[in-house]
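2024-03-11 09:14:02 DEBUG pipeline.ingest accepted 1 chain
2024-03-11 09:14:02 DEBUG pipeline.ingest length=71
2024-03-11 09:14:03 DEBUG pipeline.predict start
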Amino acid sequence: ALLLVSIDNLAMIVSGYGHDLSESVMQELQHQIRELLGPSDCIQRLQRDQFGIILAETSPSGTETLALQIS
């Protein structure tokens, strides 16, 4: 399965606190999401505010569960 995760309102963080903090937020989010993934899964940042997650051995219901955990 492939999940695309977009982070809402990242531009507000950039405007209010700067690029360095927004980058730290994105790195922490990536770390937190990685903790939820299995050993054969992969997360990669695609754009400034978007991640792609490949779930190599996850069932459709497991994919839905993970999507809900992330949201």
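2024-03-11 09:14:41 DEBUG pipeline.report The first helix runs from residue 10 to 17.
2024-03-11 09:14:41 DEBUG pipeline.predict end
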